[in-house]
Amino acid sequence: MSKKLYIKTYGCQMNVYDSQRMVDLLSPLGYEMTETPNEADMAILNTCHIREKAEQKVFSDLGRLRIVKDERAESGKDMMIAVGGCVAQAEGAEIIRQAPYVSMVFGPQAYHKLPEMIAKTTRERDIKLGLKKNIGVVNTDFPVESKFDFLPQPTTSTISSFVSVQEGCDNFCTFCVVPYTRGAEYSRPVADILNDTRRLVSLGTKEVTLLGQNVNAFHGISPNSNDVEWGLGRLIYELAEIEGLERIRYTTSHPMDMDEELIKAHGEVPQLMPYLHLPIQSGSNRVLEAMNRRHTTAQYLDVIEKLRKARPDIAMSSDFIVGFPGETKEDHNETLDLVRAVNYAQAYSFKYSIRPGTPAGAMDLQVPEPVKVERLAELQNLLNEQQLAFNQSKVGTKQQILVDREGKYDGQLRGKTPFMQSVHFDGNERLQGEMIEVLITGALPNSVSGIVDTIG
Fold this sequence. Notes:
The protein is α/β, with parallel strands linked by helices. It has helices spanning 13-26, 54-74, 85-91, 93-98, 114-129, 178-181, 190-202, 232-239, 260-268, 285-290, 297-310, 329-342, 369-393, and strands at residues 3-9, 31-33, 42-47, 80-84, 104-106, 137-139, 160-164, 166-167, 186-187, 207-211, 220-221, 229-230, 247-251, 275-277, 315-322, 346-351, 398-406, 412-416, 422-426, 435-443, 448-452.
């Protein structure tokens, strides 16, 4: 008899990838996915520590899961609750202390041991203390061995799939917790990445997004020699040789790791999509230095100039933090100037919020909340104008669309343009998973609409 598995994924695309690998790990144990926790024999919260009040959100969700667990217990059904990801890594045993009904807590480098943790939890609970008392297992180690060596090959795929190529970060930006929750930079061997990608393509994937906390710092061991390492550009050239792989993307990048080979790949590899998310965080050199970003605005703009020379139609995206400690009105205006200079197709912007344990959290001159709110609104108005203008620039053009889901309305489908725009149009459901040409007829702030020549 199959068991039901519920996973709630917070935050970044790396967490989405990790959650899918958890499904692959637990499938041999008889677990099948469910969309509702009420049916779940096991519920996992795969957490993210980047956003504000991350811990509070996790404990709030845990409270709701406890109610479900108690209701299931009344009808004679058991439910394991687990917390994984970056909040689990940061909080560790504190989660068990505050929520003693949680069975397992594990960091992002330990989830390959899920079957072992489940067995340990079940054994100790059943044999030693009986069914009514929970035993919490905590694993927040950074193991010597790579978790990827213990993960099974993908068993399922989607039209657009994630492939993790790099994890961790050595940059230590002063606002960021990633080096503390994900650990030092690690790049997977090229052969393993190629094998995973070929497997996904054989299962139906047509687009892969290469993932890493600092993905363009990738330096994986060559498939031909342990003494040679490949950069991300070289890897992309090789991935482009896989028959059936029609699109390649990667995220998230650091400006200082955009080397010449990777920039060249943007001009020479047709499968590499003309869209790049390249965070800068601020347009002020003084703030960038306080953030320990290791580059200036001039260096950032130079990278973008090289990218646009290699691929003139490339669409740029970025991240911005408003109200970093010590940020002045002049610093903020410099950020607005940089946004105008780059002209982004899309961007993400947030108010700075303190992350415990990070250097920025202890800095003086914290910016007052009302000032952050005002500056964020001004920045987002400008970014929204640019995004709408970019979407409008595609009206009247024909775009290749990878159809990946049903739309909001009956008979409607959705997909992505090469520029990462969400596009909706009317079409037969048999078009799902296909690459089709769509004439863009309308533009909204966050999406575009279009028509296909023939609706089957």
